[in-house]
Amino acid sequence: MSDQQSVKSKDGLLDRILNRIEIIGNKLPDPAVMFAGLLLIVWVLSLIFAQFSYSEIDPRTSEAIVVNNLLAPDALANFLAGMVTTFTSFAPLGVVLVAMLGIGVAERSGFINVGIKLLLNNTAKFLLTPLLILVAIVSHTAVDAGYVLVIPLGGIIFYAAGRHPLAGIAAAFAGVSGGFSANFVPSAIDPMLQGITEASARLYDASIVLNPLNNWFFTSLSSIVVIGIGWYITDKIIEPRLKGTEIDGDPSEMPQIEEVSSQDRKAFTAGGLTMLAGIALLVAAVWPEGSALRSPQGEIAAFDAPLMQSIVPLIFLLFWVPGIVHGYIAGTFKESRDIIMAMSKTMETMAYYLVMAFFCALFIQAFGDSNLGILIAMKGANFLQSLAVPGSVTIVGIVFLVALINLFVGSASAKWLLISPIFVPMLMQLGISPDLTQAAYRVGDSVSNIITPLLPYFPLVVVYCQRYVKNTGIGTLVSLMLPYSVALGIIWTLFLLAYWALGIPLGVQSSYGYPA
């Protein structure tokens, strides 16, 4: 049996499994509708459970937990009166929008896209795979740029280098989506998840404060792990399997590598130097012991240091200014209005997030006000304590539970908004910090992205493959990506456990235990 026939025989089983998953997943409501429904469920449950007494102690009051009936007239009146404030004060909302305003300018000016092309166009053949995965990982900074730029470029570059284009697409897909939570460069996903984690942690400890870069050290080193796994699997497993797969696409329809113009190179150089100058100015500003960016005690990484409170604005500026410089020199920006339009277009892409955030903010507020969250957390923590399960086993369980949920709910923020109000307080009760719980979530959220057809970009990746191999289907793509998913799930989880065992900081102002 040829390699191609072997792949096809496996695809039959995979297609049946994936079709079943797709049917089940398609029955789930839209995340925004899901949170609206959960809000109604919380109201009803608060009415029911408010009728009972509980022995569990609320750590915030040191008294027995009391479930509040949210359908009582006073509670409903307060809900309506505070609805606007609940939405506008939702922690992830402002940080995500501010970060995206800067990143959006850098992306729409061409600064990020030209940088990616220059990296991939000037690479030795034997380093093609690891650099492609590295660029795919860094592309998370521009949110969806990896899906629409790096993945198709992976096929183009491998094809131009005489390698199988589907292997290039698979490697890029593994970096963009399978390594979604690995990145050397802070991006909008960091403050987004941190904001959700902090809001959930405050259900247990109202005074807790988390840093937006609380997982940055871990995600940076995770990039090396993802690159190593992706490099080995691409070169040693995927390409050998594709030797019998004929490239039968129409040559005239196969995309080609676009040359980066001299003007774009000049613009990118200017933008890059601007970014480096900005970083240098920041270092110079924070270096003196009496710097206004330090805490009153002279510390840089303290929670009350203005520098730490300015992480999101700094992300905005370090992409916004270089993006403007690049745009004017490249000609993509001709007047100030073009910059504003770029920011406006970026906000248009955030419209769905705003709708989802509205319902989610109301749900989390109601969940906290009802005390159902703290009740579930305390009961769950007591149950886990009775099992005497080691913390490492609990973390592994979180990773694989999230990976399973990810097959049905594709949005990273939607999943975390859904499950963090339960898991974060529960694990805090067991002495596990929100920083560690979030890191475990990020691993689980990444590893199964590449094998679920419910990922919004999954059909697009199939189309990229069909440019080279016409009969590529969902099963074909999943059979290519499954080795990455399994390897990432096992090795990345072990890496997290080893990282924890060695006591390496997860990020800025992070901890492993609670209280820290």
UniProtKB/TrEMBL annotation:
Note whether Hydrolase occurs among the keywords. Answer: no
The answer to whether the entry has keyword Transmembrane is yes
Gene Ontology MF: a single term: secondary active p-aminobenzoyl-glutamate transmembrane transporter activity
Q: Where is the signal peptide?
A: none
What keywords tag this UniProt record?
Answer: Membrane, Transmembrane, Transmembrane helix
List each coiled-coil range. Answer: none
Q: Name one GO biological process term.
A: p-aminobenzoyl-glutamate transmembrane transport
Name any one Pfam family assigned in the record: ABG_transport
Highest rank taxon of the organism: Bacteria
Q: Which residues cross the membrane?
A: 32-54, 79-106, 118-139, 145-162, 169-189, 216-234, 267-287, 307-329, 350-367, 387-409, 416-434, 446-465, 477-502
Q: What InterPro entries does this protein's entry cite?
A: AbgT
Q: What is this protein called?
A: Aminobenzoyl-glutamate transport protein
Instruction: Report the source organism.
Output: Aliidiomarina maris
